[in-house]
Design brief:
3 strands, mainly alpha, 67% helix, extended, single chain
Length: 136
Amino acid sequence: MPNRTATKSKTKKANSTDCGISQLSPVALTLMADFFKVLSEVSRLQIVCCLKAGAKNVTEIIEETGLGQANVSKHLKILNQAGIVSREQQGVCVYYKIANPFLFELCDLVCDTLSMQMEQQSQQIQQLAALRQSRR
């Protein structure tokens, strides 16, 4: 007869490493997907990077990113609605800032992962080149 305590312990251990996504409802997964969709646009990522150093107004964001005014305004609205940036009126100017700095931790994780993938691809290309060279 199998040891139930050992089986429960293994199940508990597996679940403790689960980030919880598998437990989410389809509605919650849709919200998560929508959050990532907001970050899937290059101009919005440029704006997010621009705001890493601190709050800026639209003019400063335009100068730093090189994007047009209408484009920046449109993307700031989307970022604000998604809760990625917040806005604060200061006199006649509106300043935008990152609402939650965890976003940069997420970006760092993605960059690290992409870097590792590119390193692996580079090694594979080098192996293929060596194989090709040895056949000549």
